[in-house]
Design a protein that fits this description.
By secondary structure, this protein is mainly α. The protein contains 18 helices and no strands. The protein has two domains: 62-257, Clc chloride channel (Orthogonal Bundle); 277-470, Clc chloride channel (Orthogonal Bundle), CATH 1.10.3080.10. The longest helix has 33 residues, at 61-93. The chain starts with a helix and ends in an 18-residue tail after the last helix.
Length: 479
């Protein structure tokens, strides 16, 4: 073999045998660096795997301007979505969803005061989603869909309508995640900005992904988590040409969102739980259990997404689903909303063995029920809150064998493992739990062990995530 590949192989074997200097990479970085001369070793900068060229999505000055525009727009749109959510929640229950206030307000409400907002949400959601889908046929409003199976273009009208309806019904108590709307609107901001600037299709896809991750970052105050969400989940690439704009966009959106949203952690007053070997020992079997259950949760999402109510059935289905949720929530008011209050209580170590067990079963059930009715919403917080109460339950049970560690520590480990397995993104999961709580650093080793095991088990069993399972169009699979 005398071609370039053969010569490269010969050079590599000679280097390994000690007969020559390390082989020099022939790859050229695009754009080229200001300093053209190599270091004395002759090695290329791109020998480091993540220091790649820009590829098709060139990081041009125009692109960087659009990153800033997208970040600013995403922060403002995130604030708008939260204004809608908090206003509706305050009108319905006298709460603004800050901290555990929403759950407390729902718990204090009488039976009819608790049920009526959900029934109203079912009527509003059913009619509004039906009309929106009827009059915007074929228009795209799913970030994952347009990035993984499409051209990266989103419909601003349908996306805005979907987002507003979603935040309204969540404020009225629907058991779906609030992050879907700001994630979608951030992606729309990137899509519109790319069109204004005349960016290439590859640049547009990158900008849409950056906007999507920035939407998550803005409303949860998690710039690092938002950037990792963009890179690890939406694009599946951790090289510099992806990480740099993703981190910039998430950071800008988070700072802009501070105009309305607080700068503190989403989950406040979480203790700094100490490390203990009992937690590390527990992380292994807990990771196995959570990985198996996460695979079942993902499959359930895929099934209800495929069989959700359509056409005229979609008008009344949300009312029926929300009514069932309202009846169950008469006994378990923690099921109202996205699960933030439920997770917060678990992180603080609150809840009995029976309560935590019940919530870990009921939360995914009522969330799947809402999705099956045709409701649009996120799955991040419902998944994390399920992991938190499941971790607390398993931790309390473990405490009978090896007591000593607080329940909140088990809940944080369980939350990271569940969202890592559910999203198939362990790095983003770990970063998100740390940023959301501003705590848990001492738990990093057992948290990482449980997350790795759970994610690997879910990948081994099935391989889908809470995002890919919801895709309506068939995506390429590796059989």
């Amino acid at each position: 073999m005398t071609g370039p590949a053969g010569r490269a192989g010969q050079a590599y074997r000679a280097w390994r045998a000690g007969r020559s200097q390390p082989p020099v990479s022939n790859r050229e970085r695009v754009p080229a660096p200001l300093i053209k001369r190599r270091l004395p070793s002759g090695a290329a900068a791109m020998t480091q795997p993540n220091v790649t060229g820009d590829g098709d999505a060139r990081l041009t000055p125009r692109f960087w301007v659009m990153v800033v525009v997208t970040g600013v727009a995403t922060g403002l749109l995130g604030d708008l979505m939260m204004v809608i959510l908090f206003s509706v929640a305050h009108l319905a229950f006298g709460s603004n969803l800050d901290g555990s206030g929403f759950t407390h307000a729902v718990t204090r409400a009488g039976a009819w005061h608790r049920v009526l907002p959900l029934l109203i949400g079912g009527v509003i959601g059913g009619v509004a989603w039906y009309l929106l889908r009827r009059y915007t046929p074929g228009q795209k409003s799913e970030v994952d869909d347009v990035l993984w199976t499409g051209n990266g273009r989103l419909s601003p009208l349908r996306s805005f309508g979907t987002s507003v309806i979603s935040e309204v019904v969540i404020g009225l108590g629907a058991s779906i995640g609030r992050e879907s709307a700001p994630k979608l609107m951030g992606a729309v901001a990137g899509s519109v900005a790319a069109g204004w600037a005349g960016l290439t299709p590859a640049q547009q896809r990158l900008l849409v992904a950056c906007g999507g991750g920035a939407g998550l970052a803005a409303v949860y105050n998690v710039p690092l988590g938002g950037a990792l969400f963009t890179a690890e989940i939406l694009l599946g690439s951790m090289n510099l040409p992806v990480i740099l704009p993703a981190l910039a966009c998430s950071g800008i959106a988070t700072a802009v969102a501070w105009l309305y949203l607080p700068q503190h952690a989403t989950y406040t007053d979480i203790p700094s739980y100490p490390f203990a070997f009992r937690l590390l020992a527990w992380a292994v079997p807990a990771g196995l259990v959570i990985g198996v259950l996460a695979a079942g949760w993902v499959r359930l999402i895929g099934w209800v997404s495929h069989h959700r109510a359509r056409d005229a059935w979609a008008i009344g289905a949300p009312l029926a689903a929300f009514a069932v949720l309202a009846v169950i929530a008469l006994r378990y008011p923690q099921l109202y909303g996205n699960g933030k209050g439920m997770a917060h209580a678990a992180f603080l170590g609150l809840g009995s063995l029976g309560l935590l067990a019940a919530l870990s079963v009921l939360k995914p059930f009522v969330t799947a029920l809402c999705l099956s009715s045709g409701a649009s919403g996120g799955l991040f917080t419902p998944t994390m809150s399920t992991g938190a109460v499941l971790g607390g339950f398993l931790g309390l049970a473990w405490g009978y064998l090896w007591p000593g560690s607080p329940v909140g520590a088990y809940a944080m480990i369980g939350a990271a493992a569940m969202i890592g397995a559910g999203m198939q993104a362990p790095l983003a999961a770990l970063a998100l739990v740390l940023e959301l709580t501003h705590s848990g650093f001492a738990l990093m080793v057992p948290m990482a062990v449980a997350t790795v095991i759970a994610t690997a088990i879910t990948r081994w069993i099935d391989g889908y995530s809470i995002y890919s399972a919801r895709l309506s169009a068939p995506a390429p699979v590796d059989v």
